From TrEMBL:
Family: Belongs to the enoyl-CoA hydratase/isomerase family. In the N-terminal section; belongs to the enoyl-CoA hydratase/isomerase family.
EC assignment: 1.1.1.35
The keyword Ribosomal protein appears for this protein: no
Localization annotation: Peroxisome
Enzyme category, top tier: oxidoreductase
Domain 3-hydroxyacyl-CoA dehydrogenase C-terminal: start-end pairs: 478-563, 598-676
InterPro entries: 3-OHacyl-CoA_DH_NAD-bd, 3HC_DH_C, 6-PGluconate_DH-like_C_sf, ClpP/crotonase-like_dom_sf, Enoyl-CoA_hyd/isom_CS, Enoyl-CoA_hydra/iso, NAD(P)-bd_dom_sf
Organism placement in taxonomy: Bacteria, Pseudomonadati, Pseudomonadota, Alphaproteobacteria, Sphingomonadales
Name of protein: 3-hydroxyacyl-CoA dehydrogenase
Residue intervals passing through the bilayer: none
Naturally occurring in which organism (per UniProt): Sphingomonas kyeonggiensis
GO terms, biological process: fatty acid beta-oxidation
């Protein structure tokens, strides 16, 4: 019988089956919680029912609380009450799991007597990714099932476990067949109808005598990864409560720790980011029913660092790649680098030898440009020189299939100027990968003035297919992420002439949450590759003099820092003296800067550039910009990204500070500040066709 719009209860042969059906992921919305509440009450009241199966229709078991309801007034049956009802059932209950039982979904399964899962199912408590902790008993029940150490890993790291691992941990009681979950769950339950029942909350075997040293050891092991995040520490505290307090007191402690997180700016930021990341796929003027351009074979032009990394993305998902170079030695080097990368994964146990061979078998190195006539998507990844790219695209125009997608990996050149070298600009699109291309999640898809919407949609789709977060950009200098971060580098290089030294600036950026400071990053990338030209260098800046001195960074043993033979960095007295000398020439009085001032100096101009990108319609929406900076530059996700963070700082404060720094605040920033509207919710008007100063 239909319980409500998302829950149905059927009884057969003494077994009640409560089926939830609430697309897209059976999240614990008010309707779902009401369905559970009413469904279980009906099943418990039905005297013919001896046992209850909880199962979901659609793609997955319950994937957690409904995050979209978090900031709304609560309605429907409270989750804790629903879980208490299930846990108090006088009849045994089995959770039949497929897809992903996550967060509140797994917590619901943990109040059932048993859990059975399909082989492909995954189970996890990933609330930490939302800046939260499992707030429906997960921190108290999971340790009682799998022990404190495994529970800490699952909750503080947030990675789901596969069904077979869950079976080994005792988190599930049986693995069913992939396509007979319900029948197998019923059969399993029938074997348990007379079995003695022990609620997880009453178990102590897995937590008794837990060595308290575990917790500080876990903190120490993950100190670097948890830096700046609040949720992991609260999760550790909740598990400590689970192994030291009676269950009900532990639940009270969990609630305290949960609500502390829920009210935090960090969790608001990470909940915002969860949806922001998914919004990037939604391009307003791309019809949802655009026929997809099939991509079955990929060509990559250039076997250098970027070309090789790009090729690996496609090999990793089983797509054949033809990689083309001009010279045999370059081609051999490129293939050897890919092989070495994969071998490294095999050595670290992240890839099997078979997978290694499968990937390499899909790679076809070639010196023959003509072979690109057989592929569906061609990505050019050669040196950043416009004339060279135009020459390549002119050749592609003659060689590529009529419906091939012609993509350039350029990081800042004018995609329209490249497209103009062909007779088919509608087939040309930017696909800007970030180095290392096989690791970084951001892919900027750059839409040229004439790029066909189908080509844009195909580039976005193939980006998702290779595991990237694809963000759409219009043509402008630096697109979104590089354009946004250029002002931070400029501000940093200006600031070291006023007092703070590179290592102090880098420390403040590390404390803010970046994985690396701007000067350490410059030394890593190489001072010489960020636009230094020996022919025209005129000792006009610190970075130019460093380059002229051959201090190109890590690869030369020194740049802003000095490096030992293990590339360990130390502040460089040479760089410091050079900076002092330059500062003296500028006549600027050196002074100490607070960390807050350094953050403002470096990051407010970034926010301003983001507002300009929105004014110009280069990005579709502010949240896309935040996603690009988090995934392109490691902007700490617990801030939500630069524009979400700016709203927390205050737009008027930022605009005023920019003026004091001598920057012109973007009109959009000023307008939103005056209207009291948040920047991170801004959506561009009709995106501009192209923006080139
Ligand atoms: N709430 C609301 N909407 C959700 C959702 C959720 N928990 N999970 C997914 N969606 C939407 C998503 O926005 C998208 O919508 C669509 O579903 C498909 O998602 C009490 C407090 C389940 C592995 O953190 O990890 O439980 O864009 O594109 O790649 O202790 O979604 O189509 O309109 O990601 O196949 C804990 C979050 C919540 C799981 C599927 N649970 N979700 O991945 O599809 S907090 C989570 C995921 C909690 C308790 C606490 C993934 C997925 P649209 P998708 P996918």
């Amino acid at each position: 019988m239909q319980i409500n719009s998302v829950a149905e209860l059927d009884v057969a042969d003494g077994i009640a089956t409560l089926t939830l059906d609430s697309a897209p992921v059976n999240a614990l919305s008010a309707a779902v919680r009401d369905g559970l509440d009413q469904g279980f009450r009906a099943a418990i009241a039905d005297e013919t029912v001896q046992g209850i199966v909880l199962i979901c229709a659609g793609r997955t078991f319950i994937a957690g609380a409904d995050i979209s309801e978090f900031d709304k007034a609560p309605t429907g049956a409270p989750l804790h009450d629903v879980l208490a009802l299930i846990e108090g059932s006088p009849k045994p209950v089995v959770a039949a799991i497929h897809g992903t039982a996550l967060g509140g979904g797994l917590e619901t399964a943990l109040v059932c007597d048993y859990r059975v899962a399909t082989p492909s199912a995954k189970l996890g408590l990933p609330e930490v990714a939302l800046g939260l902790l499992p707030g429906a008993g997960g921190t108290q029940r999971l340790p009682r099932v799998v022990g404190a150490e495994a529970a800490l890993e699952m909750m503080a790291i947030g990675k789901p476990v596969r069904a077979k691992d869950a079976l080994a941990m005792g988190l599930v009681d049986a693995i069913t067949s992939e396509d007979a979950l319900h029948a197998d769950a019923v059969a399993f339950l029938k074997t348990k109808l007379d079995a003695p029942r022990t609620r997880i909350r009453d178990r102590t075997d897995k937590i008794a005598g837990q060595d308290p040293a575990l917790f500080d050891a876990f903190r120490a092991k993950h100190a670097r990864a948890f830096k700046g995040f609040r949720a992991p520490e609260n999760i550790i505290k909740a598990v400590e409560a689970a192994v030291t307090l009676p269950f009900d007191q532990g639940m009270k402690r969990e609630a305290e720790l949960f609500w502390e997180l829920f009210r935090s700016r960090e969790s608001a930021a990470q909940r915002y980011f969860f949806f922001a990341e998914r919004q990037t796929a939604k391009v307003p003027d791309l019809a949802a029913d655009l026929p997809e351009i099939p991509v079955k074979r990929v060509g990559v032009i250039g076997a250098g660092t970027m070309g090789g990394g790009i090729a690996m993305n496609f090999l990793n998902v089983g797509l054949p790649v033809t990689i083309v170079e001009q010279a045999q030695d370059a081609l051999d080097r490129g293939v050897a680098t890919i092989r070495r990368n994969y071998q490294g994964s095999v050595d670290k146990g992240r890839m099997s030898a078979e997978q290694f061979e499968q990937r390499m078998a899909l790679l076809t190195p070639s010196l023959d440009f003509e072979v690109l006539g057989e592929v569906d998507l061609i990505i050019e990844a050669v040196f950043e020189k416009l004339s060279l790219k135009q020459e390549i695209f002119a050749r592609l125009d003659k060689v590529a299939k009529a419906d091939a997608i012609l993509a350039t990996n350029t990081s800042f050149l004018d995609v329209d100027a490249i497209a103009a070298a062909t007779g088919r600009p509608e087939s040309v699109v930017g696909m800007h990968f970030f180095s290392p291309a096989n690791v970084m999640k951001l892919l900027e898809v750059v839409r040229g003035a004439e790029t066909d919407p189908q080509v844009v949609a195909a580039a976005m789709a193939i980006g998702r297919r290779i595991g990237k977060v694809a963000v759409l950009s219009r043509v402008c200098d630096g697109f979104i992420a590089n354009r946004m971060m250029a002002p931070r580098m400029a501000a940093a290089q200006a600031l070291i002439l006023e007092g703070p030294l590179p290592w102090e600036v880098d420390r403040v950026m590390l404390d803010y949450g970046f994985p690396m400071g701007p000067f350490a990053m410059l030394d890593l990338v190489g001072l010489d590759v960020i636009g230094w030209d020996a022919a025209t260098s005129s000792s006009s800046s610190v970075v130019e003099v460093l380059c002229e001195m051959g201090r190109w960074g890590q690869k030369k043993g020194g740049g802003y820092y000095d490096y030992d033979d293990k590339r360990r960095a130390a502040p460089s007295p040479i760089a410091e003296q050079l900076i002092r000398d330059f500062a003296a020439k500028t006549g600027v009085t050196q002074r100490a800067f607070s960390d807050e001032e350094i953050v403002a100096r470096l990051l407010y101009p970034v926010v301003n550039e983001g507002a300009r990108i929105l004014e110009e319609g280069v990005a579709i929406r502010a949240s896309d910009v935040d996603v690009a900076l988090v995934y392109g530059y490691g902007w700490p996700v617990f801030t939500g990204g630069p524009l979400f963070w700016a709203d927390g700082v205050g737009l008027a404060k930022i605009a005023d500070a920019l003026e004091e720094m001598g920057h012109a605040p973007s009109p959009l920033l000023r307008a939103l500040a005056e209207q009291g509207k948040p920047l991170h919710q801004y959506r561009s008007a009709a995106p501009a066709a192209r923006v080139i100063e």
